[in-house]
Description:
This protein is mostly helical and 470 residues long. It has helices spanning 15-26, 29-41, 45-73, 77-87, 95-127, 136-147, 150-168, 171-201, 204-212, 237-248, 256-261, 270-298, 308-320, 324-358, 362-382, 399-427, 429-436, 441-466, and strands spanning 221-224, 231-234. A hairpin with a 6-residue loop joins strand 1 (221-224) and strand 2 (231-234).
Amino acid sequence: MADQRVSVHGMWSSRAVFIMAAVGSAVGLGNIWKFPYITGEYGGGAFVVVYLLCIALIGIPVMMAEILLGRRGRSSPIGTMQRLAREENASNAWVLLGYGGVVAGFLILSFYSVIAGWALAYVFQAASGGLNGISAEGAEGLFGGLVGSPGQLLLWHSLFMLMTVAVVARGVRHGLERAITILMPALFVMLVIMVGYAYVEGDFARGAAFLFNTDFAKVFQLCTGPAEALDCSFSGEPLLVAMGHAFFTLSLGMGAIMAYGAYVPERASITGATITIAAADTLVALLAGLAIFPIVFASGLEPSSGPGLIFQSLAIAFGGMPGGQWFGTIFFVLLVFAAWSSSISLVEPAVAWLVDTRGWRRGSAALLIGLTAWTLGIGSALSFNLWSGPEYQLFGKTLFDLKDFLASNIMLPLGGLFISLFVAYSAGRHMALDELSIQRQHLFNLWWFVIRYIAPLGIVVVFLNSIGVF
Length: 470
């Protein structure tokens, strides 16, 4: 029976710890680095509303399905899918869902660590006063010098990977749980401090209005060209970006949530935990916007400046604001903590598989996975400098961009799609009823309808858009 299974890796000590761990997996660079700048690019408040609807219609139902699979199987994602396919008399090919999640998480880690290394580098820059009084040209030169230096990128990439492996090697209780119970409260405290700083020193009213005022025309049309000759035409791109980000920000389809679900106590409510996780993840993204946009506006900077919003625009803002040295340091430490809590969840599925199927010790498994991801990450780091030329590109993409595209645009949506299809069509209602324990039948029926029809359709739309079908 499912309720007699216990993971060989141990269990979370409580439902609250599991929620913090899953929030840590979901909250990462996507919330604090990506969400603010795509909100800026696609019109602010209306984009946020569409994003929240996508979280509710796709993110939460699929996360519930992934957690229930993990708890039912009590193993690594690969082991879980092997066991459940056998129990449900389904095709053995479903094990590919487990392998796909592990590979996707592993692939993401190999370039995620490089970006996290940028944040680490900026912690030291901010703390040492390197951003004080910096000009636009200076900020551009600082960032360009970092990404253009193979030695610097490899140094920070190596340090961040070492931090990740050190946590995972210590196991569920002594490693993952202990790190999460420190990182997540610290992350929220620092984020609140940054919002307070933005309120005092930034243009908070304008930032909040940008984030929450709604103009849905901006979500359904894409405008290009200079302000005096703006060309606007209908485009579904902002809507699809919102749907895609809502899906990816919750760490779905990469094996992490399934692996963490294997350590969930039997009595914990999956439904309640999932809603709490999604709410916390969304809260972090919104707080990040409230921390960033007021500072950007007060400094006369452009909120739609793309990925450079964090590492260039905010460097200028902190450099010219009272207390900017200290609050800039806090901000980039916040960014590192968010990346760290996510990276340990990317390592865990592959480590769990080696421990489950090969009998490896956790320390050895974590070291092997970390070393392999670090080696692949070398190519990601060199993509910004030595290997950035067209002779090193495939399909017009650098190695970094290619890995990002394969994982984020193909493997993750396919993972989420097949999670939905397995739960809704191969396993059937009995497993979902048993694991979710939703007392009100109409609520279960609503979730069942969404996981069978709405979520798969939405994911297919995102997937087809990501590969350029429309």
